[in-house]
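Shipment paperwork, digital attachment
Item: protein structure file
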Amino acid sequence: MSWPSRTTVTVIVIATSLAIGMTPANAENEPAGRQQAYAAAAAEFGVPESVLLGVSYLESRWDTNAGTPSTSAGYGPMHLTDVVAANAGGTHHDHGTEDPRGDDARPALHPRPGEPDLSAPNLRTAAEAAELTGIDRRTLREDPVQNIRGGAALLADHQRDLGIRSSDPADWYGAVARYSGATDTATAAAFADEVFATMAQGVARVTDDGQAVRLAARPNLEPDTAQLDRLGLRQTNRHETECPRSLGCEWIPAPYEEFGDDYGNHDLANRPESQEIDYIIIHDTEASWETTLDLVQDPTYVSWQYSLRSADGHVAQHVKAKDVAWQAGNWYVNSKSIGLEHEGFAANPTWYTEAMYRSSAKLVRYLADKHDVPLDRAHVLGHDNVSGTIPSTVRGMHWDPGPYWDWAHYFDLLGAPFRGTGTPASGLVTIRPDYARHKPAFTGCETAGEPCAPHGSGSVILHTEPRADAPLLTDIGLHPDGSPGTMHISDHSSRMETGQRYAIADREGDWTAVWYLGQKGWFHNPKRQPTAVWSMGMVATPKRGEASIPVYGRAYPEASAYPSHVPVQAVTPLQYSLPAGQKYAVGLVTGSEYYWAVTFDATNHTVVRGKTRYVQIQFGHRAMYVNAADVDLRPSVLPL
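Attachment content:
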């Protein structure tokens, strides 16, 4: 078999398109089903069908995402990249009023906006596919059939560059690794390994536009991994990384430097000896990969422990787990957590690649095992689940990774799926809508007040009464005027998220009520298509005789616990209260701590521990705390 030239390929592709009734700008004559589109493209370009399906699954899970771009400017089932204005500068840390450090013992830190760097070749693969196929970039972005053909053309071109002539899928390891767009060996290998693992195991699903696609299992597949050495990629700088060996993880350190009267961009510590790590925080970057790396290496900016790239799942570590990154906007949570930033944009109905989900899940499993962090939604939090520290900071807290992060799929990959553990009498529900079919009517993704494009979501909306046209609940932290919540994409006043647990307050037909921010909130939960599963656990309720109790955003010690050289930090209630008779799911019971670290010289940093104990509860969309002395802890089971 001889390989045709690139020019010949272009002519053949156009001729083939016309022969089967498809013009480059017309998808109406799509073959019968998406499965056939993969088979036709594989045959046309000489790519094994299993390889084409495997790569596409890792990039998009075969979804089209209605033609919207991914966080790394990728389009369609094959994630062809065409860099667009959506990749704006800055990150979510640049917006709103949140101080990422979250410690009112220090001046608020307001990071500078970053400038986007959109020059990377892996952001422009649609142009290369256009050259190979003769199909214009817009069609490659918007037409699923042409998108698949463009991806097949790229894979064939990578294989041709390697000089390998074979129809055996095992001989396509190098082309698959090249398709990832990775520039280092470990990341390219991690991507290719996941593709071939998927091919070995097999997978089947229905896509976001209703197409059934199946990749048959090939359990004895043994790829030629030695091809990786022929790609000319740089060796990954693992250096001091704390990552599983199976990940393409490199060390790109955040600077610990002094400037003027301040320093940045994190604090030295000695965790877990000094403080236990209780949380892993999931963020998105609101920026391109290059911009993200530029900012985390700026000593005047903020920091996080890890960044994950959308296109291939590449991981960069910036801050050691023992040290405290400035990432969550709550100093107590910062001092007790590890932060992961995922290249993404929460404000748009965009998507996250399977490659990134899998890398993130591997990393979180590794970190959770190493630091004894339970794999549940009380310990693996979104940035949007982190509470403000005091009343004045609540409204400015961030809301990433947003309602389009697929928590159910993520926890499936973590090996900790959300399953029901009881009956309606068990007293709790775990939020678990069908992500692909559940499409809340959000607004403001692009223009305030305008509907967002329909998109799968793990968010479930709460109403004041058991009917869809009833008002939403009120979050006085986000709406101090007492107005109800809205469906604006960033307004989670009346919104629960997949994996979160809430105490059942009532039931009526297809509607279930839970306790939420001191109110009774109703959500649609029909038997045939439930949005939650029954669960059991512990709940917190005010002690007998208490009309209501305060709720806190951090678990700080009592004043008497502070040594003379550490200023006492106020134990300030938030603007919420927990009324008598209500119950809230317990996430953990913990002691009180404050990490005093306000000087560049870390020798006098001090962990203050008090006698006060706190209970973390799922009080609203965010996790909050109550004083253990104010509540009774009981099994969630409802009385008969």
